[in-house]
Amino acid sequence: MYVIELRFTDDPRRLDARPAHRDRLAALHATGRLLLAGPLADDSGALLVFRDDPDDELAADPYYRTPGVEVSSVREWRPVVGDQYG
Fold first, then answer.
1. Could you read off the pLDDT of 26-71 as tens digits, one per residue?
2. Strands across the sheet with 69-76, in order?
3. Are residues 10 and 75 in contact, defined by beta-carbon separation less than 8 angstroms?
4. CATH code, 69
5. Phi then psi for 47, rounded to 5 degrees?
6. Engineering a disulfide at 67: which of 1, 11, 47, 80 sits with its beta carbon 3.0 to 4.6 angstroms away?
7. How many domains does the chain have?
8. Tell me, what DSSP letter sits at residue 61?
9. pLDDT classification of 81: cutoffs 50, 70, 90
10. Does any domain span residue 82?
C-alpha cells in the first residue's frame, strides 16, 4: 500500500479543480485501487491510500500539479491490522 500526503494553500484554483479530482478518486475507488481518501479536518491537506504504487496516477491527474496543491510525500505503507491490509 502507498500513502500520499497533500498540503493545501489558499490558492483558489485548487477548489476549481477539486470536483474533477474527486470524480477521478471515486472511479479509482470503484476499481479497488484507491482504498481511502479525504481532506484533513482542518483542510490543510489530504491523505490518500492506494493499494499499489500511485506514480502513474500522480502523473495522470492534473490536480496534483494544480496551484494550491503540493504533494508532500508518497510513502509505501505496510499495515499490520485492519480490514484493508494485505
1. 999 999 999 999 999 999 999 999 999 999 999 999 999 999 999 9
2. 34-39, 45-50, 2-8, 69-76
3. no
4. 3.30.70.1060
5. -125, 140
6. 11
7. 1
8. -
9. confident
10. no
